[in-house]
Design a protein that fits this description.
alpha/beta, Rossmann fold, 8 helices, 48% helix
Length: 257
């Protein structure tokens, strides 16, 4: 039987590109998002039939919703070989604004709790089988906090730390945990950014590079590698120099903007 991949946030952007890349390589698809009609239309447009793809409606911000989608996948299609927790949001915040605290809470609920809830249904059956790959989508924004990006940077730093913890827990089980940190990818999340985006990738370019890392079970990778170099240099800067370098940098749009 063809291998199976479960992807959240599959209705657009990186999630959709990953679905296309894995389908091209012979994987069956289990695709999850709130907007199921968009996924179904995309699959039909590519001639992907029900035997090769099933769609599960779920809200990653609601733990029981995404857990139920995972369990439905196991019941209908079996235990996936790969699970990609891709769903996420990126919204600017200003801590002076009370409303933006709710944006922070929502960001953490989706990007962190939602990621763990995505993995939850699959950990035990993958461990029992002795194989599988759990993939968390982080970001180079995890490396250092950027002005106006507090919610997103904190959540992606949390993704990296959580996946590292889970990797240690599953060591020796045959289940691999892969952390991918994209740089800038041309998706709806980045198209409104008010600052330069060096080494910008198309979703298809990112998906192609991610596919190789996931297939071999790489524990951690920044894509593209050039952003990994920049991230390491940023991390190495003393705080005073880093703070001066990002002063006046364009900020992520807040929700009302």
């Amino acid at each position: 039987m063809k291998p199976l991949i479960f992807i959240t946030g599959a209705s657009s952007g990186i999630g959709q590109a990953l679905a296309a890349r894995f389908h091209e390589s012979g994987y069956r698809l289990a695709l999850t998002a709130r907007r199921t009609a968009e996924i179904e239309s995309w699959a039909a447009g590519r001639g992907i039939g029900v035997g090769d793809a099933q769609v599960y409606g779920a809200d990653v911000a609601q733990v029981d919703s995404i857990v139920a989608a995972g369990r439905a996948c196991i019941e209908s299609q079996g235990v996936p070989d790969v699970v990609i927790a891709n769903a996420g949001i990126s919204v600017g915040i200003d801590t002076e604004d009370r409303g933006d605290l709710d944006v922070l809470a929502e960001t953490l609920a989706i990007n962190n709790v939602g990621l763990a809830a995505t993995f939850h249904p699959f950990v035990a059956p993958m461990r029992l089988r002795g194989s599988g790959r759990l993939v968390g989508i982080g970001s180079v924004a995890a490396i250092r906090g950027l002005p106006g990006h507090g919610a997103y940077c904190a959540s992606k730093a949390g993704v990296v730390a959580y996946c590292e913890s889970l990797r240690g827990e599953l060591r020796g089980s045959g289940v691999k945990v892969v952390t991918l940190c994209p740089g800038y990818v041309d998706t709806p999340l980045t198209q409104g950014n008010r600052y330069g985006m060096p080494f910008l990738l198309t979703p298809a370019e990112f998906a192609d590079r991610a596919f190789g890392a996931i297939e071999v079970g790489t524990s951690y990778r920044v894509i593209p590698w050039q952003m990994g170099v920049i991230a390491k240099l940023m991390r190495a800067l003393p705080n005073a120099l880093f703070d001066r370098a990002v002063q006046g940098r364009g900020r992520k749009k807040r929700r009302h903007e």
